[in-house]
Each structure stands twice: as structure tokens, then as C-alpha cells.
Amino acid sequence: MKEAVAEAALSPAFKKWTPANTKKAKRIGREPKEHKEPHYTPSELATEWGLSVDTIRRLFDEEPGVLKIGNPSPWIRRRRILIRIPFDVVQRVHRRISA
Fold this sequence. Notes:
three-stranded antiparallel beta sheet; single chain; 6 helices; alpha+beta; globular
């Protein structure tokens, strides 16, 4: 986790990121009837922040509020867990690492 935070703090894209200029925030803003909070996949957030998908997964692994879909059983050979990260969790983590 500490390595992932250090890597994120060095990324220029992470430093420039603001909630207002994200693709999802702009898309949600065009739909006034639906007030849905955007959820990010690790690959979408990795692209916006300029980090690897593995780093994003490590950053949000133990974060409260992250949706994990799948079977985390250690008995299955290849665990497949989908992660969806709500916009407010993204903002919280970004503020914490940027501070």
C-alpha cells in the first residue's frame, strides 16, 4: 500500500487530476434527470491518473465504500473479483494522497 501511495504521489496525471474535469463527471452532468454517482473501473482510473491497474487495485483494496463483485474464495484457482470505485471514494483517496 505504501508503495502504491508513493507511486501515485509521483504521477503528473495524478497531481493534475480534479473531479470537475473527469470524463465521467462531464457525462453525468449531461443527464439532469438521473442523479447517479459515477463508478470507476480500475482501468479507467489508471488511465486518468497515469498509473498502472495494479497500483489502483492496491490503493483501493482495503478502502471502505469500494464495491467488490465476485468470489474471493482462496480455494478457487483464479479469483475473479470486479472492483467498482464510487466517485466520492476516488475524491477521498485523491485528497488523502495529495495532502
